[in-house]
């Protein structure tokens, strides 16, 4: 039986992987086929920035590297699909479920779909979660940068100092800051800030980089500008939190209607309805 399942699952994995690869290539080609050349260039840059962000985050995350390795390896996907199928069969035997031949095929197909879809989904979710966490903790980095500049450091020295000290707040900041320092040494701070804003894609990061570059260009007080920006970013995050809290009441109304109002209506109306039917 296991050999039969393997003979079914492996060709299915090959066919579905080929179809998924062709669909992905078609989607990429479609996204690249744009009328405006500037829009096409921005689209390509977004793909590059996404992979750069993922690669930088992978320097401190074994979990993300595991997701990437599974998603990129066809052999690992086959092995994982077979393991999930065997595990499903073992669980069904332990639970005493009687499965027919078609049920085994369904278990194999479900395992195949999970193996193909889950790694890429987990990668995207992991990167999005980490970027969101970095954005939430960006005001702490700005505060430390402002204090370092107030102590007499240049912005380049302050970033180099933060690259060695930010691990206590969020280790994911360290590789991004190290890349910023290396780019600053090679091509200047302005170019490094541009790439930093693209590698951590968020409104707060773009505001930080634009403000810092403008302050350096026009010679305004960096300490005061950074502290003001830190306060504004915290206010933006607080407003976003309040907005989510405001949406929570509307979301809670759905389960309240389904699991509270309808049962109460039934309990209140049931005696009267029963009397009507009994009198009739």
Please render the helix and strand layout as text.
Elements: H1 2-32, H2 37-57, H3 62-72, H4 74-94, H5 101-136, H6 138-150, H7 155-165, H8 173-187, H9 189-199, H10 203-218, H11 222-279
Helix pairs in contact: 1-4, 1-5, 3-5, 4-5, 6-7, 6-11, 7-8, 8-9, 9-10, 10-11
In brief:
The protein contains eleven helices and no strands. It has helices at 2-32, 37-57, 62-72, 74-94, 101-136, 138-150, 155-165, 173-187, 189-199, 203-218, 222-279.
Tag the structure with descriptive keywords.
280 residues; mainly alpha; 11 helices
Question: Stretches where pLDDT falls below 50 for ≥5 residues?
Answer: 34-42
How many angstroms does the end-to-end distance come to? Answer: 62 Å
| Oligomeric state of shown chains | single chain
The chain-level structural class is mainly alpha
Q: Estimate the strand proportion.
A: under 5%
Residue share in helices? over 70%
- Average of the residue pLDDT scores: 77
**Biggest sheet, open or closed, and with what strands and sense?**
none
CA radius of gyration: 28 Å
Order of helices and strands: HHHHHHHHHHH
What's the shape?
Answer: flat
Per DSSP E runs of 2 or more residues, the count of β-strands stands at 0
What's the total helix number? 11
């Amino acid at each position: 039986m296991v050999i039969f399942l393997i003979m079914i699952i492996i060709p299915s994995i090959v066919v579905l992987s080929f179809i998924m690869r062709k669909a992905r290539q078609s989607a990429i080609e479609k996204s690249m086929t744009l009328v405006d050349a500037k829009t096409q260039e921005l689209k390509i840059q977004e793909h590059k920035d996404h992979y750069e962000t993922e690669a930088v985050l992978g320097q401190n995350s074994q979990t993300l590297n595991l997701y990437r390795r599974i998603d990129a390896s066809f052999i690992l996907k086959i092995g994982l699909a077979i393991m999930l199928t065997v595990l499903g069969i073992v669980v069904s035997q332990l639970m005493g479920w009687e499965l027919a031949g078609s049920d085994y095929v369904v278990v194999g197909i479900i395992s195949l779909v999970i193996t193909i879809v889950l790694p890429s989904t987990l990668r995207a979710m992991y990167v999005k979660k980490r970027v969101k966490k970095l954005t939430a903790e960006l005001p702490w980095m700005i505060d430390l940068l402002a204090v370092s500049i107030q102590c007499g450091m240049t912005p380049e020295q302050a970033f180099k100092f933060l690259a060695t000290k930010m691990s206590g707040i969020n280790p994911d900041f360290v590789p991004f800051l190290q890349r910023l320092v290396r780019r600053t040494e090679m091509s200047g701070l302005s170019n490094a800030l541009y790439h930093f804003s693209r590698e951590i894609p968020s409104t707060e990061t773009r505001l930080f980089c634009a403000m810092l570059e403008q302050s350096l260009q026009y010679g305004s007080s960096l300490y005061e500008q950074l502290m003001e920006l830190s306060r504004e970013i915290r206010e933006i995050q607080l407003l976003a939190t309040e907005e989510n809290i405001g949406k929570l009441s509307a979301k809670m109304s759905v389960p309240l209607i389904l699991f509270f109002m309808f049962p109460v209506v039934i309990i209140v109306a049931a005696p009267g309805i029963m009397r009507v039917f009994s009198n009739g």
